[in-house]
Amino acid sequence: MKPANDIRALEGKHMISILLYLNINDRCKKIEIYDNVSNNPRLPDKLDELETMELITQFKDSDSRSMIIALTPKGKMVAQRLSELERLIRSNI
C-alpha cells in the first residue's frame, strides 16, 4: 500500500481528476463528483485518502444533509499546480 503522504498516492485512478474538478468547482456535493468525475464504487475510499493527505475536507451540509467536498488550502495549491501542468501539456510550446 502506498503511503498516504506520498505523491504516488495520486497515481490512483481518478485522484488527479478529482483535484482538478474541485479546483474548478471549489466545493461541491459528493454526488457531483460521482456524476462528473467517476461513479467508481471505490470513490469514497479515494476521497478518504485525499482527506488523509490533507488535500480535501468532507463534511455534511446541515441544510441538505449532503456530503460536501472542498479543497483545503494545501489541496488548492496542489490542484492549481496540477492545472498549470495540464495547461502546459496541452499548449503548443
Shape estimate: globular
**Beta-strand content bin:** 5-15%
* Relative helix content: 40-55%
Distance between the termini: 37 Å
Main β-sheet: number of strands, strand sense, barrel status? 3 strands, antiparallel
Rg on CA atoms, Å: 13 Å
* SSE sequence, one letter per element: HEHHEEH
> Which structural category do the helix and sheet elements fall into?
alpha+beta
The count of β-strands is 3
- Give the count of helical stretches: 4
Structure description:
By secondary structure, this protein is of the alpha+beta class. The protein has helices at residues 15-25, 30-36, 43-52, 73-90; strands spanning 27-29, 56-60, 67-71. The longest helix is centred in the C-terminal third of the chain and has 18 residues, at 73-90. The protein is globular, with a radius of gyration of 13 Å.
Give a brief description.
This protein is of the alpha+beta class.
Topology, element by element:
Elements: H1 15-25, E1 27-29, H2 30-36, H3 43-52, E2 56-60, E3 67-71, H4 73-90
Antiparallel strand pairs: 1-3, 2-3
Helix pairs in contact: 1-4
Features:
alpha+beta, globular, 93 residues, single chain
